[in-house]
Amino acid sequence: MTAAVARTAVRPRARAGAAGRWLKFGVLLVFALIVLIPMYVLLVTSFKPLAEATAARAWQLPTVWTVEGWVFAWQELAPSLANSLRMVIPASIISSVLGSLNGYVMAKWRFPHSDVVFTLFLFGMFIPYQAVMIPLVQMMQAADLMGTITPLVIAHVVFGIPICTLIFRNYYATLPDQLIEASRVDGAGMLRTYWSIILPNSAPAFAVTLIWQFTSAWNDFLFAVFLTGPSDWPVTVALNNLTGSMVMPYNQQMAAALLASLPTLLVYVFLGRFFMRGLMAGALKG
Amino acid sequence: MRAKRDWLPGLLLVSPSIILIGVFVYGLIGWNFQLATSDKHTNIADGEFVGLDNFIAIWSEARWPGAVWNALVFTVVFVLTALLLGWLLALLLDKGVRGEAGFRTVFLFPMAVSFIATGIVWRWLMNPAPPDRAVGLNALFQDIGLGFLANEWWLTDRWGMAAMALPAIWQLSGYVMALFLAGFRGVSEDLREAARVDGCSERQVYWHVVLPQLRPVTLVAVIIIGHMSLKVFDLIVAVAGRQLAADVPAIYMWDQVYEVRDPAMGATAASYLLLAVAVVIVPYLVWTLRSERKAS
Questions:
Q1: How far is A220 from chain B (nearest CA, A)?
Q2: Interface predicted TM-score of the whole assembly (ipTM), two decimals
Q3: Please, are residues A218 and A275 in contact by the beta-carbon 8 Å criterion?
Q4: Helix (H, G, I), strand (E, B) or coil at B113
Q5: Fewer CB within a 10 Å sphere, N or C end of chain A?
Q6: Surface of A (159-188) touching B: CB under 8 A
Q7: Is A58's Cβ below 8 Å from some Cβ in B?
Q8: What residues pair up with B38 in beta bridges, in sequence order?
């Protein structure tokens, strides 16, 4: 009898379920299209010739597709793209290595009050960097480092330590303690254990921190605008200065914005999984 | 307490980072506060201690109260909308939809783009010119017969920052969605099933079982989005440049340093920013520390 009841009850419900599913799908599709509008504008406008990048044809597809906007953007931004690359590579590697060492200690080799030290580190990733900026500039001037890219690298390394430590700590916490114990019993010290047991198991966490640091240093504007001069401008500052003048044609502006975003977009498309994990780590336990 | 030789190597290994964070975070915050409590109003002045004078004087500066107002409008609109949209998207995606992975990818990709690049497109989209000369959304409204919707966007008097929140909402709703999705999936299926066995409908399960358990995730989302909002800088620079209509504390501080060249006032603005963020973040960190201690 219960079976019969279930059968009659399930059918209309299943039909309502199917309609509901299509409704959900439709709503999501509308949202997805809205989210993609700015991408449409960027792409379509960037391939327009100068004559078509006008108000009258704002939303139309180009009648002639051309890369002249991209060529211009490349000529203007090439030096700053090189600066960005020069800066993000050391910044992501050094902060990841420091984060790995810190995370190892804070997950597996704790010292008294290491959780308090960890919390004090985390505060550093939430502060508005404006609160350190004026003295930071003075400090870099005093050290005679202004006019090079070094101050920007230092800033990204230091202010990347908290999130890298967090990601590694949470990752190492999932490794079984027996691994460490076994290594200790064998007489290995802290560094030997790190080198032979922990580091070989760290690849996934390194992927997350390297990608996270790459993305956030590449996209940073605040540190860059305070700490670099024209010869060292990373691409965000160069892009802003280039497009800030309202006379610049839209096809060039959009091509420049896309060109500057291409590296992080490619990382997202191909390594999005790791990018996501970094994103969720920002919510501490999220 | 364990023997010293057990934990000392660990402390030593972390010490380079402790020194760096100590100097660059806490040392510089202290130095900034010292500047804010001095009368170093030019780059060459010595700067005598003046207590909290600057913290009071800043409120009678022409631009500061407007900048604070703008940041508040921006924050309220941005946080509420991003939260609502993120929650809605997560709800729609929660129980498996055709193409779920594709939707997630689309909703999250704006996170990978810099605020500067985002700002360039949105400056185009929110072009304030009247529809006949405008590009962007005003032109689109005209094309599809909704010309009455055309407006001045962020140049709208007093409430313009609500429009400025649009690009930020576009960029971060996907992140809120990801947080909520993780939250939904953290609610155990056993618990939901138990409620269903007790005769709850799906809607009741959602309101009485799932929603109460989402409180921590909601709090985390508000804190993360809220503190980003108070710091907003790049986006405004890219959309509006340094126009007064879009002034916020971070822009004010930048101008004090490079245009007005008043380090003490710049440092005061920065201190207020830090204070605003700390009020939100410090309790959150303490709460996290406590709950981890309880767990271990």
A1: 7
A2: 0.90
A3: no
A4: coil
A5: N
A6: 159, 161-162, 165
A7: yes
A8: B49
